[in-house]
């Protein structure tokens, strides 16, 4: 008979700090530091060299030249034969505005991208010389107006990193699929463009490593200061990098605001409940007001966007060549944060905006978000507030003006002029916010960006841009 062994009480897990006490200081230090491995000027030259590479080629093709893509019988949806990647389908949206149908209703039909997979947008961080650096990639995307832009370490759909395309493995993805405990700086599901994607989310991640990392030719270690410098250049830091950067903890959180956080959350919840949006999928072949020929699907009045097809060659991608559909806007957009100072604290004017493709009806958007050409046929009183003003705002009021392109893997030449406007001296901008708008601090936006589906992708871009401005 075995004698039972005595043991002590079970060892209980030890609680840890809810947030690394040093992470905000380390982010602030990186935002002040020059890079140890390369200068910002060298990064600009490196990107220019990659853009001139003969390895990259994008050309338009008719739909019948698409390989592995076709219009599905019955629905007319544009689909890939594998059933993976994404599809272009139809959407019917009805926005009643109020829970019981009060107020004006909007009703429209449109093509939209359906991509139910959750992709990974991940930036790898590592400390060099006591300063956090971030591993950024010179990535070719077929829709970029200048082909190559600075992107996250990993920018991949699930189909890509599970190798549904049967191409090469996604580099560095192992750091993000199962990150080690204590190494995650940011990890949050965020939406993509609610006007062009149907309920699409990506996992936005920043993960730190202390191990050795083999540096591949299309990658560079940069400090946050260097990335901020590059955010001041047109079409240099891509959308996926901007959204990940917006999820970093704020280096200097605000202490006061016009609305305390609980009031802001209550206001936002109220905005979500007052908007009643029905979004129903339809077949792409049954979208009224849209016309298809061999080369494009276009709106009958030439507004909004088109669906087109391209053939791509890119020697440094997981697959060297492919064809695919892309969405091409009809004209550039204007996206702006208007700012005011209240009691010495800078605030930005945000808009609780409903878009047909959002997972949860409403997200916080910039003060202005739109394409002026799409509203040119309307009377000025019927256009979005401040859209005309933002399109013609005087240089003296601009704190930031840079052209950024949107996601180059799905959108062709989709550019917007991103603005940060100082409204302290502008009588056109009301101190009392219009219905559906609120004055909030950048720190409040930063706190919300660490949770999913509060800030839309345009607001997250402008939050990243706010951080590159002098205090």
UniProtKB/TrEMBL annotation:
Q: Which GO terms describe its molecular function?
A: lyase activity
The ranges of region (Disordered) come to 1-23
Pfam families assigned:
Hexose_dehydrat
The record, for InterPro entries, names: EvaA-like, EvaA-like_sf
The dTDP-4-dehydro-6-deoxy-alpha-D-glucopyranose 2,3-dehydratase domain sits at 41-248, 262-466
Q: Which residues form a coiled coil?
A: none
| Protein name (database record) | Rif-Orf18
Organism phylogeny: Bacteria, Bacillati, Actinomycetota, Actinomycetes, Micromonosporales
């Amino acid at each position: 008979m075995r004698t039972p062994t005595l043991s002590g009480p079970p060892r209980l897990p030890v609680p840890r700090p809810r947030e690394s006490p040093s992470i905000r200081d380390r982010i602030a230090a990186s935002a002040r530091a020059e890079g140890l491995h390369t200068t910002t000027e060298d990064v600009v030259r490196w990107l220019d060299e990659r853009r001139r590479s003969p390895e990259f080629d994008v050309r338009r093709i008719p739909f019948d030249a698409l390989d592995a893509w076709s219009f599905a019988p019955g629905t007319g949806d544009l689909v890939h034969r594998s059933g993976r990647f994404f599809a272009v389908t139809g959407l019917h949206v009805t926005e009643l505005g109020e829970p019981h149908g009060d107020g004006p209703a909007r009703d429209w039909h449109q093509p939209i991208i359906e991509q139910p997979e959750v992709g990974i947008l991940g930036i790898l961080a590592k400390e060099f010389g006591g300063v956090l650096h971030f591993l950024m990639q010179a990535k070719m995307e077929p829709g970029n107006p200048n082909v190559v832009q600075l992107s996250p370490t990993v920018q991949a759909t699930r189909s890509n990193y599970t190798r549904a395309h049967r191409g090469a493995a996604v580099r560095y993805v192992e750091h993000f699929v199962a990150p080690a405990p204590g190494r995650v700086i940011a990890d949050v599901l965020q939406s993509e463009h609610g006007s062009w994607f149907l309920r699409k989310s990506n996992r936005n991640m920043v993960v730190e490593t202390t191990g050795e990392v083999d540096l591949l030719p299309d990658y560079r270690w940069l400090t946050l200061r260097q990335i901020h410098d590059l955010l001041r250049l047109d079409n240099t830091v891509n959308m996926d990098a901007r959204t990940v950067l917006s999820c970093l903890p704020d280096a200097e959180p605000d202490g006061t605001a016009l609305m305390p956080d609980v009031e802001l959350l209550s206001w936002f919840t109220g905005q979500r409940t007052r908007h009643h949006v029905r979004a129903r999928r339809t077949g792409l072949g049954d979208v009224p007001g849209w016309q298809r020929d061999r080369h494009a699907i276009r709106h009958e009045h030439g507004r909004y966007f088109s669906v087109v097809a391209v053939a791509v060659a890119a020697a440094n991608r997981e697959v060297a060549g492919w064809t695919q559909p892309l969405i091409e806007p009809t004209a550039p957009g204007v996206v702006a944060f208007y700012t005011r100072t209240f009691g010495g604290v800078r605030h930005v004017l945000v808009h609780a905006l409903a878009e047909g493709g959002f997972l949860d009806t409403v997200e916080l958007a910039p003060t202005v978000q739109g394409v002026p050409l799409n509203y040119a046929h309307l009377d000025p009183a019927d256009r979005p507030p401040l859209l005309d003003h933002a399109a013609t705002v005087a240089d003296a009021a601009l704190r930031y003006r840079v052209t950024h392109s949107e996601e180059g893997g799905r959108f062709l030449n989709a550019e917007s002029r991103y603005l940060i406007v100082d409204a302290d001296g502008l009588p056109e901008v009301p101190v009392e916010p219009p219905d559906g708008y609120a004055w909030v601090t950048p720190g409040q936006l930063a706190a919300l960006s660490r949770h999913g589906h509060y800030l839309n992708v345009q607001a997250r871009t402008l939050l990243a841009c706010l951080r590159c401005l002098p205090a």
